[in-house]
Design a protein that fits this description.
Length: about 70
């Protein structure tokens, strides 16, 4: 049971990194949509949805990586 704790910490850190990468991809995709929009309602809705999801994933990933203690 003693060896299980570092593996859980590594899993949290991995999941935090994955969320951070997904957030960055979402924010980049939002920027690409923003650059190619013509101002239609559909474009604005997708900008808002992908932007909010990107920000949420990015912030939760960063906070999960920062909150996980490195016990190697």
């Amino acid at each position: 049971m003693k060896h299980l704790k570092p593996n859980i910490m590594n899993l949290k850190r991995f999941f935090g990194g994955l969320l951070t990468i997904l957030g960055i991809v979402g924010l980049i995709y939002t920027a690409v949509i923003f650059a190619g929009t013509s101002g239609e309602t559909r474009d604005i809705k997708s900008l808002i949805i992908y932007g909010i999801l990107g920000i949420v994933f990015f912030m939760s990933g960063i906070s999960l990586v920062r909150a996980t203690k490195d016990e190697a």
